[in-house]
């Protein structure tokens, strides 16, 4: 089924890093894949739970964010990215709110660094994908990003997604390879649609539509 909603994903040319250090296009991720993300100042592993949204044929407007270290990542406007505050804490902000001079967390040669944004380019690209990991984050082109979009608070949504993670882990222990079904068609996953409807009812202020 197709549902009307803003597109909020990664561009199809985004690379993610598996725990064996292999870099693959984001569209090649499959449920159960082990990939890298950050936890505080450490590089850790996480696991791909489902593809929240995907469309290999449609185009979307992306914000390509470029750092002084040479890293860059393309996100749709309301997709959240990890930024470092003045007091050193991590906050997740929409790509459209990132400004030159903001500091992002990047990985180079297996080490975590802070790098400032030096340019932001708005461009149309074809194909978009939105994987969900257990930690709710991943490294996209070695830049730390959230898996979430169209929301105002990454941490709150990650907390309320706990039942989904419990179900996923239990299913995998029971050798269920596709806990949320084999979603291979273009469009938003039905689980996301249901969660969005629940959020509209119980916590509408968490949703960000523009």
UniProtKB/TrEMBL annotation:
SUPFAM superfamilies: Hedgehog/intein (Hint) domain (SSF51294)
Pfam families per record: Hint
GO cellular component, one term: extracellular space
GO biological process, one term: smoothened signaling pathway
Keywords assigned by UniProt, alphabetized: Developmental protein, Signal
Keyword Signal part of the UniProt annotation: yes
Domain Hint, chain residue ranges per copy: 7-108
An example Gene Ontology molecular-function term: calcium ion binding
Acetylation listed as a keyword: no
PANTHER family noted in UniProt: HEDGEHOG (PTHR11889), PROTEIN HEDGEHOG (PTHR11889:SF31)
Protein name in UniProt: Hint domain-containing protein
Source organism: Rotaria socialis
């Amino acid at each position: 089924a197709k549902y009307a909603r803003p597109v909020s994903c990664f561009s199809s040319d985004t690379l993610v890093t598996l725990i064996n250090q292999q870099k693959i296009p984001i569209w090649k991720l499959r449920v159960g894949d082990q990939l890298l993300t950050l936890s505080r100042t450490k590089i850790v592993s996480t696991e791909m739970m489902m593809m929240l949204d995907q469309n290999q044929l449609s185009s979307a407007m992306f914000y390509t964010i470029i750092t002084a270290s040479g890293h860059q990542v393309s996100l749709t406007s309301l997709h959240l990215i990890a930024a470092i505050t003045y007091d050193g804490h991590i906050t997740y902000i929409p790509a459209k709110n990132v400004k030159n001079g903001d500091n992002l967390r990047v990985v180079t040669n297996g080490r975590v660094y802070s790098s400032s944004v030096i340019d932001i380019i708005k461009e149309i690209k074809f194909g978009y994908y939105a994987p969900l990991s257990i930690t709710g984050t991943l490294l996209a082109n070695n830049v730390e990003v959230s898996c979430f979009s169209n929301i105002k608070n990454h941490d709150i949504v990650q907390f309320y997604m706990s039942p989904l993670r419990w179900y996923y882990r239990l299913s995998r222990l029971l050798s269920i390879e596709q806990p949320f079904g084999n979603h291979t068609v273009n469009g938003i996953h039905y689980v996301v649609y249901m969660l969005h409807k629940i959020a509209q009812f119980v916590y509408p202020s968490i949703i960000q539509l523009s």
